[in-house]
Design a protein that fits this description.
Layout (H helix, E strand, L loop, with lengths): L11 H21 L4 H23 L5 H18 L1
Helix pairs in contact: 1-2, 1-3, 2-3
Amino acid sequence: MYWFRQSPIEFLPWLLIAALWITGGWLLVTHAFRLDKRERVISGVGLGLMTYLWTVNILGHWLPAQYAFASAGILIFLLGALN
């Protein structure tokens, strides 16, 4: 989470990872639940964030922090895309 302390450009990987878990959460909600269109976005962000944090905590036991943060975002996106 401290990628952007040195320069503003280092904020871009965090934005990419956030976009991945938000999109993955939205895809999971879209496929798993019958919700209105306006309800899918906030539910997807909530489910994506919850799943992302859970996955980071699990992966953090075995991987360094930067790899745990990055791989959790990718896993959430792949889980949503493969559903």
